[in-house]
Write a structure and sequence with these properties.
Layout (H helix, E strand, L loop, with lengths): L4 E4 L3 H13 L5 E5 L11 H6 L13 H6 L3 E4 L2 E6 L4 E5 L5 E5 L2 E4 L3 E3 L12 E3 L3 H11 L17 H8 L6 E5 L3 H12 L3 E5 L11 H13 L3 E3 L4 E6 L3 E6 L8 E4 L2 E4 L3 E3 L30 E3 L6 E2 L6 E2 L4 H15 L13 E5 L2 E7 L3 H6 L4 E9 L10 E9 L5 E8 L7 H9 L4 H5 L15 H14 L1
Parallel strand pairs: 1-2, 1-7, 2-3, 7-18, 9-16, 10-11, 10-16, 11-12
Antiparallel strand pairs: 4-5, 5-6, 8-17, 13-14, 14-15, 19-20, 21-22, 22-25, 23-24, 24-25
The protein binds flavin-adenine dinucleotide.
Length: about 475
């Protein structure tokens, strides 16, 4: 067949697209190239694997290669797409031995994800220094933190794992003190995981509060939750260097009042300072890029190149509040866009959907979530006049066991009353409440409309006035002033 649907990348976006396409267009060929050995894995579960909440690495896998084959998808692992020729509608594919071949496409989906950035740090050159952006790293971290004689090799029970790397880390003496570099959501999850593994955990965050995109109220409460479990949180504390010859020995931290860097001895570091989209294969094609240098796409996931789509962590999506392209790489965004593109290419045009940066994270018993635009400067740059209020409200009727204080922040536009964003933090099912706000933002609701929502009330679940309704009531009062 001459017009296969070719997909680059075999995880959330790529396999969602291939599977949907296969069902909708059973007569057309679909070929998926994956540069690594892993497919259909859950990055999001890696911190919980390291923590020990998940027993086996295989529990994090969704589809095996043979299950993908059974679906009628032509999966080719260890095949990296290194170039795209949009005029000839061909891709160049490189195998493990450097052998190259060409593959024609009718439609092409770039679902190559993102990779960890390491800033100025030489993470690969130092034993005990890691990023956490692939499954091999998760397996290596798990092996490194175990005492050599206590490591259970069955934990990494997947043939795709880099066994040599795991075994090497398993033989090293177990670390006692770890620097988690970066207090974003991955850093917070890693801090919990490594505390659970018995390490003395230090989190270093460049700015004044953890979880910058979640706002200060959330950041401060998550910091308190981590510290209550023994984590030391250093804010306004940019790590400037990883120190060590073969194995990491210390981190150098700036931000001190005397301007001198402080040296903190550690025997492990996990660097989580950001990611960047994988777009190298499109170099030289002239494809339009957008925010974060991600591949700019329209509402159907189409790039500026004919018959070339992009989805997931490598692509932009339209922001539900601003209506502009944005880059907020998250799991549902990837799965949803991939599935929509699979349908579109099969002949059923389907929008990829807007994004609102809806995200949730836990730190021990504290749950936090955010959606939309919280940062006043970001709101102003988008043409809004932001007004915000933060309330503390009970999660259940006060007399019902388990009621806990929940902080809700809402941000609205003063002129229109439109809800722009919100965050929630608390210990009693706080995070899932964000979905009410995500729905309200998607529906362009105003704060008075949110205040009138008919949310469920029963003492075990919520007080009469759900914390979100309390926050909307207070913000509405401010808007009316
Ligand atoms: C530790 C961690 C925790 C996370 N937790 C959450 C969470 O709780 N909630 C949430 O929403 N999101 C979370 N995420 C983000 C989520 O995992 C990503 O948004 C999602 O995996 C993106 O899917 P994707 O298919 O776009 O990219 P990926 O999952 O990165 O898959 C891309 C695939 O493409 C392959 N590839 C790349 N280039 C090529 C090439 N040139 N040729 C062939 N193959 C190629 C890669 O090897 C990879 O397998 C987390 C991420 C991490 C790292």
């Amino acid at each position: 067949m001459s017009d296969p649907f070719v997909v680059v990348g075999a995880d959330a976006a790529g396999l969602s697209a291939a599977s949907k396409f296969r069902r909708e267009a059973p007569d057309r060929e679909v070929v998926v190239f994956e540069k690594g050995r892993w497919i259909s894995y859950a990055y999001c579960g890696m911190p919980y694997f390291i923590a020990g909440y998940v027993d086996r690495m295989s529990d994090l896998l969704s589809l095996s290669p043979s299950e993908v084959d059974e679906r009628g998808i032509d999966l080719r692992r260890e095949r990296e797409v290194v170039a795209v020729d949009p005029d000839a509608k061909r891709v160049t594919v490189e195998g493990p031995d450097g052998d190259r071949s060409e593959q024609a496409y009718g439609d092409l989906l770039v679902a190559t994800g993102a990779r960890a950035t390491t800033g100025p740090f030489d993470v690969r050159g130092l034993d005990g220094a890691f990023t956490l952006h692939n499954m091999d790293a998760a397996a290596a971290i798990d092996a490194y933190v175990a005492e050599p004689d206590a490591y259970d090799p069955d934990r990494a029970d997947v043939s795709a794992v880099d066994r040599e790397r795991v075994e090497r880390n398993a033989t090293m003496p177990a670390p006692e003190t770890v620097a988690v570099v970066g207090g974003g959501y991955v850093g917070v999850e890693v801090a919990e995981a490594l505390t659970e593994r018995g390490l003395d955990v230090h989190v270093f965050h460049r700015s004044g509060h953890l979880l910058s995109p979640f706002g200060e109220t959330v950041g401060n409460r998550v910091e308190a939750a981590l510290e209550a479990e023994g984590v030391t949180v250093h804010t306004d504390a940019p790590v400037e260097a990883l120190v060590g010859d073969d194995r990491i020995e210390a981190v150098e931290v700036g931000g001190g009042s005397d301007g001198d860097a402080e040296t903190v001895p550690v025997d492990m570091a996990v660097v989580g300072v950001g990611i960047r989209p994988n777009t190298d294969l499109l170099e030289g094609t002239g494809v339009d890029l957008g925010p974060g240098d991600a591949i700019r796409v329209d509402d159907r996931g189409r790039t500026s190149l004919p018959d070339v789509y992009a989805a997931g962590d490598c692509a932009t999506a339209r922001h539900a509040v601003t209506g502009e392209p944005d880059w907020l790489p998250l799991g549902l965004t990837a799965n949803r866009a991939g599935r929509a593109i699979g349908a579109t290419v099969a002949g059923d045009p389907t929008p990829v959907g807007d994004i609102a940066g809806t995200a949730a994270v836990k730190a021990f018993d504290a749950e936090a979530a955010r959606v939309g635009i919280l940062d006043p400067e970001e709101a102003e740059a988008a043409g809004f006049d932001p007004v915000s209020e933060t309330v503390t409200a009970g999660s259940r009727s006060g007399y019902y066991p388990g009621a806990a204080e929940t902080d809700v922040t809402l941000v609205a536009d003063r002129d229109t009353g439109r809800l722009l964003g919100g965050s929630i933090v608390g210990t009693d099912r706080a995070a899932v409440r964000i979905d009410t706000l995500a729905t309200a933002i998607e529906a362009d609701m105003t704060v008075p409309e949110v205040e009138r929502l008919d949310l469920a009330y029963a003492p075990p679940f919520s007080p009469v006035w759900d914390p979100i309704l309390v926050a909307a009531k207070v913000l509405n009062g401010t808007l009316e002033d």
